[in-house]
Structure formats: structure tokens, C-alpha cells
Amino acid sequence: MSAADPMLEAERVLRICSACMYCDGLCPVFPAIDGKHSFSLSDVSYLSNLCHNCQGCWHDCQYAPPHPFAVNLPATFAAMRQRSYADHLWPPALGRVFRASSLAVPATVALALLIIFALVLGTGSPEALRTTYAGEGAFYRVLPWPAMAGLAGSTLAWAVTAITLATLRYWRTIAPKTTISEIVRALPVALSDIITLRHLGGGGPGCHDHDERTSQRRRILHHLTAAGFVLSGLSTIAASAYHHLLGVAAPYPVASLPVMLGLVGGITMTVGAVGLLGLEAWADPAPSDRGETRLNVAFLTLLAMVGASGLAVLGFRSTPAMGLLLTIHLGLVFGLFAALPFSKALHAPFRAAALLRAAIDSRRSTLARTPEASGDTP
Questions:
Q1: What is the distance between the alpha carbons of residues 313 and 328, in angstroms, rounded to a whole number?
Q2: Phi, psi of 101 (to 5 degrees)
Q3: Averaged confidence pLDDT in the chain
Q4: What is the value of pTM for the model shown?
């Protein structure tokens, strides 16, 4: 084994896997290595993000420990995924921050909370944290709209910019020589794989969350978490439309679109994140990587706290606790936005890029076998 160097270990393990191919059919990783005998850093960066960590190969592998070959593909890929994130972060200096992400994420959130409390106290008084406010514009009596909107806009713009540029850097590393037309034709398959998370099925029956038994729990919880995040974002967009287009300031009635989207989104995101945290605690440590586990726990804990604090604001917005709860919620949201570019959130766009590469390769393989299937041939 070459455990001291994850790249050397990845090359060693992948050479064994490409010679064996017993796990062919479990996931798109194995068709991607079929017939290959050497693997570059870009190859491993691509393959590690194409892996969905269902751990099917760990349970099926005849060379897993205690065999002398000690093949542990899930843990090897987990280590290489972290390297791929750090290598492609933008700005590059964030690579050092990412390597301490399990500490950097909570530190960023703590700083965001301090800033929000300072702004609330600086623009008002301590009374704002324990006074009952009611009616239109009540939230802005705790923190004025310009400060709230300015922090939200700046942190979100930072997150979108940094993650987009990191993903583009990663795509340049793993992308084959291709054309726009080829990408467009592969996109439907890639989008289907991204949205359905079908590769979290481990070839069909599900992931190995703890032992040899399979289940669809992780896939369902991923869907809940992602759907909750999207719905919460749509709630914010709807609230902005109410504010700017209809001239109505928050908080809004429970039956309004922003509140209903936020309520369903907050519940699903919290349930999904807490469920995934439970799976992390229950997981078999043998095929896991402690660094990735820490990344997962830090990110999922933050998502759960954001969802739960938003629900608390909704539940207690007509009480003296509203000011304090709103301040905590805003600090968590702004901390989440600020920390996204160096958190486990990177796995989503990086995996999407890897699935697009896999869809391109799969289409090329199909056309090579049946040239008449190409629309470009007579």
C-alpha cells in the first residue's frame, strides 16, 4: 500500500480494479477505467468525483482487507476528492483554508454571527433583541433593510463567483477535447443523472449505509436536503418580488408564497441534513475517510442549523424572542454563504461536471460501436 500518498494509492488500486473489473456495472466509475493501465492526476480527479460513495465496490471486492492487496476504493476516492477541491479552489489561496475546512467553516459562521450582532446593536439597541415587533417591516426594526440586503447580496455573490470559477477550473482539468455540439447532446443524460441521483443506488438496490445491507435512505435524504435548499432560495426570491414589485415588506402572512416556500424548504432541509448526519454517525468507518467525514459533518450541521433557525423565526416571530432568533438566523445564513466556496458544497458542481464528462464518453463509446446512431452520419 501507498497510503502516505493518496495519488500513489489511487494509481495502485485503480490498476488492480481495471484488471479485475468484477464490480463493472455498479457505477460509471468502472466503465470509465475499463482497458486503462495508467492513471494521471486528472484521471483520478475525474474518477473520484464520479464516485458517489455508495460503497458497493467495498462490499463486493474480493481484494478488500484483510486480503494483502488491501483495496479500499471508497476511502481512496474520498481522499482524492478532497485534493481535487483544494487544487481547484478560487482564489487558489483558499486551498489552504479548505484543508482546515472542518475548522474554517465554524470559524466563518462564528465571525458572521459576531458581525450581525454588532450591526444589530450598532444600528439600534439591545432592546431590539428582546422586543416584540409586529406588522409590516417588523424584521427591519431589528436590522435595517440596507444592511440585511447588503450582507446577503455580497456574501451570495462571493459564493456564486468563487464556486463557479472553481468548477470551471475543475472542468478544464477533466474535460476531454470536445465541441459545444457534443456537450449539448450529452447534457440531457448528465442532467438526468444529476437530478435523479441514480448512482446513489449502487447499481440499483441502494447504498451500503452501515453494512452489507442496501437501502435508498441516503438517496432520499440527499433529495430532501437539496429540495429544501432550493425551496429556501425560491422563498427568498419570492420575498424580494413582494418587497420590490408589490411594495410589501416582511414578515408576510403564513399563507403567502414566500412563507410557504420557506416553511416547506426549512422542514425538508432540516430533516434531510439531520438524517444524513445520522447516517454519518452510523456509517462503517473502514471504507470511509476521516477528513471527508469531518467535511460532511461540518456542512450538514450548518445546513440543519440554518433550516431549524428559520423555522424558529417563523414560529416565534410574534414574541419577544423574534429579534434574537432573527439575528441568529441571519448570521447563520450569511456564514453559510461565506463558507460555501471552501465547504463540502463543492461536491455538487464537481460531481455534476464529472457526470457530464461521463455522459460525453458514454455517447462516444456508443457511436463508436454503432456509427449510424450519430445524426452527423448519412
A1: 9
A2: -60, -35
A3: 91
A4: 0.92
